[in-house]
Amino acid sequence: MNFNPSFQAQKQQVLTLFGKAISSAQQHNREAIEKGLREAKTYLEQGQMVLVVCGEFKQGKSNLINALLNEPNLFPVDIHITTSLVSTIGYGETEKITVYFENGQSEQISREDISKYVTEQKNKDNQKKVVLLTIETPNPLLKQGLLIADTPGVGGLYKNHAEVSYAYIMNADAVLYVSDAQVTLSDDELKFVKKIESRCQNFLFAVTKIDRVKNYQLTVDNNRKKLAQVLERSEDSLTIIPVSSYLKEVYLESQDAEDLEDSNFPILEQELWQFLNQQRGYILILRALNKLAQYVSEIKQPIQAEWSAYQKHTQEELAQMQQQFEADKQKYQALLNDNAQWLTLLNDGMADIEKNFRNQFARGTSNIHHLAQQLLDDEQMLEKPEQMGNSIVTDINILVSDLSQEVLQQAEELQTKIEIASGLKLQQLAMEEPSWEFEHPDWSQLKNHEKLNWWDKTVEVGRRASWSSAGAGFIGGIVGGVIGGVVGLFSGGIATIPGAIWGSSIGASLVGAVSLPSSLQKGVSEMKQVERGAVKKELNIILKRYIDESLITCRAELDNGLTKLARSLRDDLKGRILEEKETAESSLRSIKEARKLSQEQAAKKAATLKAPLQQLSQLQGSIEQIAQDVIKQNDSATKEPEILNSDMPSQKSDEEITENYGDFADE
Amino acid sequence: MSRTEKLFKEIRKMPLFQQVIPMEASIGWPITIRKNGKVYAKFPFFGQKSTGNGEWDLTPPFATITFDWSNFIPVEYINLRFQNPAPELTWQGTIGVFPHSAIKQRMNTSEYKQKRQELFVMYDELFQALATGKSSKSKDREFSQLFSLLIEEPLIPYYRVIGKKFIDHFLIEI
Q1: Interface predicted TM-score (ipTM)
Q2: How far does B86 lie from chain A, in Å, by closest CA?
Q3: I need a surface site. Which of A150, A489, A589, B2 has the fewest CB within 10 A?
Q4: Do residues B89 and B154 make contact, with C-beta atoms less than 8 angstroms apart?
């Protein structure tokens, strides 16, 4: 898999800028800012893009992953082997393979032992009670932050792992659905795709084993038609890539470019990175730039204030400046008071969120009971009561996932609202435009309310990044009760952002709750022998009880999560206010010092500030440039193609074309 | 971002700028030059100072730097106070204010910035036209109108000194 030069290069550029900003913070003794910068840098370094590979069992998923990573021996791929649980693979300085069990224990194993845990053949019915396998490997292709999740076949989802698979899928940055070139997509597969496509928009399809099929294009075309119909999308909008993992493996041996080309893996890699960059990569980088810009402004402001004070201002003007900063300081102090307006907004906002949540949960509960009844009325389902259980589990997980997303979205909106109302957002905008950097000055009436497009974009996207990591935190949290360390993998080590706290809080208890206990499964299968009417009656009782108990547990956890979310939001906002207050106080100190100096002393001092200010300005310029490049790149990548209408009148021909134009410029 | 705007921003990062131009100086609109088939942009630099009531005092341009349009490399620096190209003009002290009446009466900050962006794009087209030798009268008209609106009125006499043919070609009554 090739590096995506664009994302990697941009990420490196931004990390370099972080290094400079951190040095600057250290130089100017801004410890809190230095800490914030380091956290934001870590988030970018560790921020991951999650690619979930799914599809029916025996379609070649593991083989494909091995081929993508140029590691033919990573996942076991013998034709007799089926993967039975979710495995993830991400970057680590040294190789480390860990198995996590239902009881919360974990064990490090070697590569050779992987098959003993992940395959149906060597771990029948998951007797070893494994929930997850994680692989960290120093594979340079993963260093860019890609995390690949290999899920068991959809049709063969092991009973207790359905929720883990779906949790990954629903929070993936991209889903790669794999099918075999020897057969077109089945109805079951199409149903599965339809179910999850609404939750993860970034869907790619790979058709594998093309080396075994002469006219694999027929399968590709057929799949395209079926998917277009089921997903109600145009055929052109679907990305379906035929590949051969076998030929990629051959290439790894032969290094013959023709083998690589025939494998078609370069095309798959290109499409994958495009998908990932357009979503997660874009968000990661813009979030980082947003934080960087914010902190660099905060370093610069007091220095800028001091420099301004040293210019030939009258005592009256200096007094005015001092008054302004005093007012800012008082403003932030007021925001820290217990009866501050933003706290009321937060409390009221959270109360609204909780109310919406309760209503939606009640509606969701009713739907699930309704669906359960539909399943009971389905004669085919009665033949396979185990599948009934799986379906219920999936539906409950979808409800929890949807509610989580809804809560997070509302919380994100609430945070934005509070920041604007408290003036935090505007203050950021004001700090972006030091006066001498304008080619022309700005006049007074609109100064603090002008919006820089790129800054706004980074704020918008940066906030989305914080909240989208909640999804990732949710994944980590789903298994978090069992796998404490996994949460860190997803949230870049920054487990304090509100979304991540919500995610890990919610997920921790759901593994046990939202899966059919094995006793129930056994009970259901035993009932196959009993008369159909009685089966239905018994199933109804069992399912109802099961659904009610599961939902009670889910509700309790979600309520708990809401409490923690509110607390985390409050702490996050308070932290921001404290930072702003410190910056205002620092600026005030600078002004007061400046007023004590004579003109000559002031001029000398001003000269010493020129270099650091220029450095910071250059840094800001670089940040802005990268942000604009990233935004522009993303905009052109996601732009709708123009529709050329041949019926439109052609552009009016310009009768005034001047040849030999430009004598006014000639020297 | 247009190429012209990009150059605007790049100038401040250049070592030459940092050596000879005060940090607080403003950058004026470029004069286009064509020499031996190559196209250049000549930028004037002038001073500005806040009056404290939403206006800015302007001082005359004190330097120009000319850049090769194709690669943004500076090819000429002129210290106007040293050269003194027009002794009849005042080259020091306040000569007027910004914003001038044409801007004050017609637009707010946001609209002004929008117009600046538009003019940057038109500059790109102008440079391109000079490189190819082909343009149209309608494009010239559009450029004239916007350029004449945005050019800093007190600085016009100085622009005439720096780029007479350019000003004579494009400046119109607004």
Answers
A1: 0.86
A2: 19
A3: A589
A4: no
